[in-house]
Design brief:
single chain, about 240 residues, mainly alpha, Four Helix Bundle (Hemerythrin (Met), subunit A), two-stranded antiparallel sheet, about 0% strand, elongated
Length: about 240
């Protein structure tokens, strides 16, 4: 009997220690590390690709519309990858998390799947395609920055609640950061147009919608005012969805 009680006490202490660890800054930083390493790997590959592309151009370098459009699309994508890393570095610790493994797996796929597109072979694009790519990525970057400035440090990868924000772009849609990311990713897709890239694009969009549902469940459970906010505010597109 005493042994059973001792084992129960030991299990309770272990559970308590695990709960305290999961609430610590160390745990939060460790959870960021894999995403940051993955983003960093994709980023350095894209920077190396830009250098190789520049070195492969004929000399003397001609500043043509085709060159400017190609350079702009590549630089815009690099800036997008840098922004993703920066956002993950500055986020604050959560006050609540989704339960279970599935929401975390969906969030992880949503945060990493589209970056795999950058590993594909680029499709040579026209001036118009490269300009469209750069413009879409830069628009996505701009809206992302505006959304993150409104969030402060409440950015999250996993379905977690940090703070309910209803100002800035969050007055118009509940998930402007996701909308901005999809705009930028569409711009990135223009640089890699192929069946694999299209499959990644469509798969990512479906996963993001699934991810949103988990996130909204956590927000509803954490903030009583979220339901009223959701009834008055579109999810991604004002007046449409």
């Amino acid at each position: 009997m005493a042994r059973v009680v001792e084992e129960s006490v030991t299990a309770s202490l272990a559970d308590g220690a695990l709960a305290r660890f999961r609430a610590s800054r160390t745990y939060d930083r460790l959870m960021r590390l894999p995403i940051l390493l993955y983003n960093g790997y994709i980023l350095q590959g894209e920077v190396r690709g830009l250098v190789d592309w520049l070195q492969g151009l004929p000399a003397p370098l001609a500043i043509t519309a085709d060159f400017v459009a190609g350079l702009g699309s590549r630089v815009a994508l690099i800036l997008f990858l840098i922004l993703l890393m920066a956002f993950h570095l500055v986020r604050r610790r959560p006050v609540a998390r989704a339960r279970g493994l599935l929401p975390r797996l969906v969030a992880l796929l949503g945060a990493t799947l589209t970056l795999a597109m950058v590993l594909l072979e680029r499709t040579p694009g026209s001036i118009a395609v490269n300009v469209a790519s750069a413009v879409l990525i830069l628009i996505g970057n701009y809206v992302s920055i505006v959304a993150v400035l409104s969030l402060g440090r409440s950015l999250s990868i996993m379905p977690e609640a940090r703070k309910l924000v209803m100002t800035g772009p969050y007055r118009f849609v509940r998930h402007p950061l996701y909308a901005a990311e999809e705009i930028a990713i569409l711009g990135a897709w223009l640089q890699f147009m192929s069946w694999p890239a299209t499959a990644i694009l469509v798969g990512h969009f479906i996963i993001q919608l699934w991810r949103l549902s988990f996130e909204e469940t956590v927000l509803r459970d954490s903030f009583p005012e979220y339901d009223a906010y959701a009834r008055q505010t579109a999810r991604l597109l004002p007046g449409i969805y």
